Amino acid sequence: MALVRWGLRRQNFHPLRKRRRALLLKLTVVIISVLLFCEYFIYYLVLFRCHWPEVKTLAHGGGQEPVLKAMFLADTHLLGEIRGHWLDKLRREWQMERAFQTALWLLQPEVVFILGDIFDEGKWSSDQAWADDVQRFQRMFRHDSHVQLKVVIGNHDVGFHYQMTKYRIKRFEKVFGSERLLSLKGVNFVMVNSVAMEGDGCIICSEEEAELREISRKLNCSQEQVPGSSQCDREPEPRLPLSAPVLLQHYPLYRASDANCSGEDAAPPEERNVPFEEKYDVLSREASQKLLWWLRPRLVLSGHTHSACEVFHPGGAPEVSVPSFSWRNRNNPSFIMGSLTSRDYALSKCYLPFEDTVLTMYGAAAGFLMILILVHFEHLPSPFLCGWKLCRLHMRR
């Protein structure tokens, strides 16, 4: 009898082991599929819908005027050692890395501009912490040599005006460069350290304003159509392309609030009517007027507010505030795609995957896994089990 019972148990053990293996296989397939989709393929699916905007081109030297494809993003806020939790770093930095690398592969821009606040703790970082943060940034935002990456100084990179020092600025410029004027395919870009536009006569502010006045003079020289005996003709450097510049900075030019901003990535309704503080949320009126007068830009792009906005300043200069690129600052991050020529431009917005969409998919997958486990151990109510079995029989037929 004992041998018979042992034989029966052995016969029942094999089907049980097979069922457990089948359950383990199902769980593994579901988990891997969800991870691959939510952490990798979703970026291709979402960014595949983004396209470069069309811009008018004119005849130029026997052909069409060249078009520059530029990406503009802002406020990545890479967390540091002081306020950065390891899980927050892992989640949000992986999101930005995958979004950036996917955008480079799908859209193939020629130049990428990041409009400040690259780091969250640059104003506090020790030299070792700064080096570690830079290394992470360079890994996340790696790019081929044919793509240029240009970065504008933000207040979290070097500190607000009262925290900003020459040492922090030099430390930043050693990694990201110090150029303020860049010409690509006939398009002039002016990159401003807007943190230094305080207007109080400090050494750093005075040097920044002097450099901007020199850039203004060069831009004015490019407007002279008839060669003559002016100072512009006696300069050894070639003239800039005949093109009104694109102004890039971290702080927005002065506006009273976001009350006139709209769109799904604008500031929340309860925040739009909150007045902005000059020299903290936006540049002062005086600094804004100086930049518009000196540079006469045809387009202004800025960051800092983490939300989108489009405004027109005196003289007709449009400004576009670029939302944050990180899930840490908003649920629906995005970046701007620009097609630019020396005379015209066109902009479009490209959204990244929404964070709540990814979290919802993980929640749904967890619920499905729980149902699989409960069905396997027959812990669900009888009507549910009967329905489940009927569905499986129908699928087999």
UniProtKB/TrEMBL annotation:
<feature type="domain" description="Calcineurin-like phosphoesterase">
    <location>
        <begin position="69"/>
        <end position="307"/>
    </location>
</feature>
<comment type="subunit">
    <text>Interacts with GPI-anchor proteins (via the GPI portion). Interacts with TMED10.</text>
</comment>
<dbReference type="InterPro" id="IPR039541">
    <property type="entry name" value="MPP_MPPE1"/>
</dbReference>
<protein>
    <recommendedName>
        <fullName>Metallophosphoesterase 1</fullName>
    </recommendedName>
</protein>
<dbReference type="GO" id="GO:0046872">
    <property type="term" value="F:metal ion binding"/>
</dbReference>
<keyword id="KW-0479">Metal-binding</keyword>
<feature type="transmembrane region" description="Helical">
    <location>
        <begin position="359"/>
        <end position="377"/>
    </location>
</feature>
<dbReference type="InterPro" id="IPR029052">
    <property type="entry name" value="Metallo-depent_PP-like"/>
</dbReference>
<dbReference type="GO" id="GO:0006888">
    <property type="term" value="P:endoplasmic reticulum to Golgi vesicle-mediated transport"/>
</dbReference>
<comment type="similarity">
    <text>Belongs to the metallophosphoesterase superfamily. MPPE1 family.</text>
</comment>
<keyword id="KW-0472">Membrane</keyword>
<feature type="transmembrane region" description="Helical">
    <location>
        <begin position="23"/>
        <end position="46"/>
    </location>
</feature>
<dbReference type="GO" id="GO:0005794">
    <property type="term" value="C:Golgi apparatus"/>
</dbReference>
<dbReference type="GO" id="GO:0005654">
    <property type="term" value="C:nucleoplasm"/>
</dbReference>
<keyword id="KW-0464">Manganese</keyword>
<keyword id="KW-1133">Transmembrane helix</keyword>
<comment type="function">
    <text>Metallophosphoesterase that catalyzes the removal of a side-chain ethanolamine-phosphate (EtNP) from the second mannose of the GPI-anchor protein intermediate. Participates in the glycan remodeling steps of GPI-anchor maturation to allow an efficient transport of GPI-anchor proteins from the endoplasmic reticulum to the Golgi.</text>
</comment>
<keyword id="KW-0812">Transmembrane</keyword>
<dbReference type="Pfam" id="PF00149">
    <property type="entry name" value="Metallophos"/>
</dbReference>
<keyword id="KW-0931">ER-Golgi transport</keyword>
<keyword id="KW-0337">GPI-anchor biosynthesis</keyword>
<keyword id="KW-0813">Transport</keyword>
<dbReference type="InterPro" id="IPR033308">
    <property type="entry name" value="PGAP5/Cdc1/Ted1"/>
</dbReference>
<dbReference type="InterPro" id="IPR004843">
    <property type="entry name" value="Calcineurin-like_PHP"/>
</dbReference>
<dbReference type="GO" id="GO:0033116">
    <property type="term" value="C:endoplasmic reticulum-Golgi intermediate compartment membrane"/>
</dbReference>
<keyword id="KW-0378">Hydrolase</keyword>
<dbReference type="GO" id="GO:0006506">
    <property type="term" value="P:GPI anchor biosynthetic process"/>
</dbReference>
<dbReference type="GO" id="GO:0008081">
    <property type="term" value="F:phosphoric diester hydrolase activity"/>
</dbReference>
